[in-house]
Amino acid sequence: MRGRKIKAQTGFWHNAWRYKREEPSLEKILMIPGPCDVEQDVLLEMSRQVVCHYGTEWTNFYNQTCDLVKELLNVAGDVFIVNGSGHLALESMVLALGERNDEIGIVDNGNFSHRMIEILDTYGIKPKVLEIEWGKIVTPEQVDEFLTKNPTVKSLALVHSETSTGVLNPIEEIGRITKKRGIIFAVDAVSSAGIVPIDMESDGIDLCATASQKGIGAPPGLAIVAASEKGLDFIRKRKKPIPGWYASLSIWDKFRREQASFQPYSITMAVNLVFSLNKCLKAIKEEGIAQRYKRHNDIASMLRMGLKELGLNIFCKEAEATPAITVVEIPEEIGTINLINHLKNKYDILIANGLGKLKGRVVRIGHMGKNARLVNIMALLRGIEEFLVQ
Amino acid sequence: MRGRKIKAQTGFWHNAWRYKREEPSLEKILMIPGPCDVEQDVLLEMSRQVVCHYGTEWTNFYNQTCDLVKELLNVAGDVFIVNGSGHLALESMVLALGERNDEIGIVDNGNFSHRMIEILDTYGIKPKVLEIEWGKIVTPEQVDEFLTKNPTVKSLALVHSETSTGVLNPIEEIGRITKKRGIIFAVDAVSSAGIVPIDMESDGIDLCATASQKGIGAPPGLAIVAASEKGLDFIRKRKKPIPGWYASLSIWDKFRREQASFQPYSITMAVNLVFSLNKCLKAIKEEGIAQRYKRHNDIASMLRMGLKELGLNIFCKEAEATPAITVVEIPEEIGTINLINHLKNKYDILIANGLGKLKGRVVRIGHMGKNARLVNIMALLRGIEEFLVQ
User: Where are the N6-(pyridoxal phosphate)lysine modifications (chains A, B) (predicted)?
Assistant: First the structure.
């Protein structure tokens, strides 16, 4: 692969490839699996003077932002937006899935679904785990079989778009199964919300966790959890509230019910981040979610075509791949770190190494929001080609 | 008081007081007990393009920011900065104070110290409580007596500057007692860090919780916890790690030890907020903490003198008051809401109502960071005078 002869090795391209920069810029193009680059108009919202996080003006704005999330995910229940990372959203979601003796089911087919098990473990909760090989989706048949074998399981959580392996689990079909069985269905949509259509109502999703900085396109710093009416009801009917304070949906829901018209949650909200989030949600609406989905699919296909032409393999089946990121196998003799450093040092493009057991075996390329554009993937492919030919 | 005759009722002042605005501005001057107004150069940091939250460049910047916090609080241990609110910092701190059967001591003399008890309760932990009347500080003698009566108490937590009552608890003297007894000492410095000098080393403070949006002067969204070496050691020597994930100092510390040079904490950091925080910490250093302390003290004294001239009473003893905020008694016939609305609607100045049992009895005026300036308190006093005279 390296040293492979192609026409571009002469003339302009040859010189371009030999070009060495003296001072790399600090700002990078973020083609990692998040955070992503943020549009300028969204960044400007960050610089607005801080406002008070309670009172009518703020509450109207916050609730309007929650309504935009509800519209994006099509859910009639409620949405909570809190200062935190995707991890906080994930913890809040899985912690709500059962009381001490309830059986929680977790599909484990990547780093982030495995993190849900680790989080539950810190509370002394041991879920029932459906383990699937990394790089494969979980099939509806596997879920059905798992639930038949484990009839005490009351709730099931999985990751929609798994950024460690690049797969997109089929939540629509799985939702049909959990709905039929009357099981609470929870989805980690941290890297799918805003990129892949999610219909919580028709897919029977009761809890959905996401964050500000990936598919939605805002700067990092906000955890977002949406709950269907069935999900809210499940939380409210617990014998004991969910343990803990900051990550407890019982607490979030309590404040919402008691003081939604004055201060929807009793913490000092990161108001500047909510300004930016609001701007992004409106931009998604303006682009149209169907068009946005098509854009991400198109860009993902183009990138994968280019990578295959360079002789590289996509880690998972393309039909099962998420449009948010692409995970690419890198032969050992090439070296993931070498490729990552080449792109970073010469092109200011950041891509990511494999996570967990895939470290050193794959690189992960994010193409979400602002970065799901032809200009980004063409520059990236050129940079990879150059590295392989050198 | 209202209708009291003063010279200013004629001429220019009379007309000014009758002036009615048609359209109030959305932006307010935040003289609430936080968040506070943020300086323009700090706000501009918020609009920088998002950067990656791992790798050498980021780690250097993040660790430098932590070092600035260490310097501010004079602590040799470690500092953790995480996406969250002051509540998250508080929860992380109190949760670290004991295992299931350890006795945790809490001084309860305001809304925020009471919140620590409520937070522990969500984990099924019942601390030993030293209850002090709202509006009074806890004295070193009371602490000494409490610890003598409760020899099993292993750690003690209190709020330094209590924004519900306006008192500043004497942490220096109390630290001397806890140090002598070998007890872990934890301080909520959410509204004191950056305004009142805190010396964790010489005051024997082992854990200190604060946030970005008050005395430090950045926009809201970051929780900050500092730990002394003794504090870190206490956490590391536990039999079982602290429960939970996002709010657990065991988890924060684990990542710090395992990967400080690559990604100090395994969440997607709110990088824009850290840019702003870094800028504020440098500005505090430039102003000089002694000068900054004097500025806050001077402004607090000036404001209180003005309020007393208007016939209003400060809620706590002035010698025991925090320089961060002033809590003022409002006679029932005047009405806190009426005064708050007058200042908001006519002057765009926001002040806050009393919290908990003080609601409707006091107003709370914040004068921290950008707002600890003569121009702010003069405008505020004029607005209050006008309201009282009407």
Answer: 214
